[in-house]
Structure to design on (361 residues):
């Protein structure tokens, strides 16, 4: 049986190697929160909160995640016993998906280690080799953007994602396609447009994009359905997808042709698997988006991307793209466009944690 003796919270800041910008904000450092669960045998499982310091992406922040874990989720699970992580009972707490995912990730890691199996195998993954792409934030000039794209392609990344917003979209795509006519390319709008922009967005079709991610409001399904009916470029929903119910509604309404699954945003691995399976049954491909994760969240997201319906290169790539030094050993590396996950039990990486700990018993 799974049971938990102790929970430790590690919190620290990690500066990004380069600022990351979208149409909403610019991020220069990440407020990292790592959860460490310990069972009666001294086996340790790790989870990560990928929430940001402010609620620009979701309503959760690192502060709210820590509060929910300390005051609600740890008191809720510390006396629970279960045979499998899918039996973890967190329904008494509404939403707070990133807090739940941090806890649940540690439970899955601990379970996989007790099974002496790698996490990707434990959740039903079919390979430990994941194709990866790269996301590029909004750049200050075209030369810098084109240079970064070439550098990433030279490093083997299999597709490029560009952040776009009004007045920084069609002209940029024109230049990118001039230099990289055959490169697999997608764009992410982070909800920067409205249906008033529909004629403008139709012009994206000429650039042979894999998809446009979340062009309209972060909580919308209806308008996306109207837009998808009028453009050929597949719409990928990201911010709108928080639950399996969201997925069912999006598919029923024909709001998109692709769905992004982010572990933290949907509440963890169990929910992510359910969404993956439902999409597979309804012939909707999924892909693994990134959240500027440190090593634990990166490893767990990549493990998820080993499931069979992940049909596009994943966002989480090499650690050294983002961090001067990651918290895992070895760091995540990309070779010939792939990340190969280790076959050690659990997430497969050792942690180097020197941050102050807060122990909950």
């Amino acid at each position: 049986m799974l049971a938990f003796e102790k929970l430790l919270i590690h919190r620290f800041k990690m500066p990004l190697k380069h600022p990351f910008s979208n149409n909403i904000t610019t991020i220069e450092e990440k407020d990292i929160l790592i959860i460490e669960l310990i069972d009666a045998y001294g086996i340790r499982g790790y989870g990560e909160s990928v929430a940001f310091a402010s609620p620009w992406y979701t309503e959760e922040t690192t502060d709210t995640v820590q509060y929910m874990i300390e005051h609600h989720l740890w008191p809720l699970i510390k006396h629970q016993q279960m045979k499998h992580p899918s039996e973890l009972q967190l329904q008494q707490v509404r939403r707070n998906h990133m807090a739940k995912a941090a806890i649940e990730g540690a439970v899955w890691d601990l379970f996989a280690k007790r099974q002496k199996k790698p996490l990707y195998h434990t959740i039903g993954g079919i390979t430990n080799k994941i194709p990866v792409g790269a996301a590029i934030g909004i750049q200050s000039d075209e030369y810098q953007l084109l240079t970064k794209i070439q550098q990433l392609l030279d490093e083997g990344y299999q597709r490029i994602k560009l952040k776009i917003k009004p007045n920084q979209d069609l002209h940029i795509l024109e230049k990118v396609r001039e230099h990289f006519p055959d490169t697999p390319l997608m764009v992410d709008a982070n909800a920067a447009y409205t249906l008033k922009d529909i004629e403008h967005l139709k012009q994206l079709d000429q650039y042979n994009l894999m998809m446009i991610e979340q062009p309209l409001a972060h909580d919308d399904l209806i308008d996306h359905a109207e837009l998808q009916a009028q453009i050929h470029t597949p719409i990928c929903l990201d911010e709108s997808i928080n639950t399996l119910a969201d997925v069912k509604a999006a598919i029923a309404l024909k709001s998109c042709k692709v769905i992004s699954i982010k572990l933290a945003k949907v509440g963890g691995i169990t929910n992510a698997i359910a969404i993956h399976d439902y999409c597979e049954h309804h012939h909707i491909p999924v892909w693994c988006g990134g959240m500027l994760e440190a090593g634990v969240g990166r490893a767990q997201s990549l493990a998820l991307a080993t499931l069979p319906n992940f049909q596009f290169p994943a966002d989480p790539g090499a650690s050294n793209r983002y961090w001067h030094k990651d918290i895992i050993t070895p760091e995540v590396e990309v070779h010939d466009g792939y990340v190969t996950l280790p076959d050690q039990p659990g997430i497969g990486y050792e942690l180097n944690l020197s941050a102050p700990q807060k122990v909950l018993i």
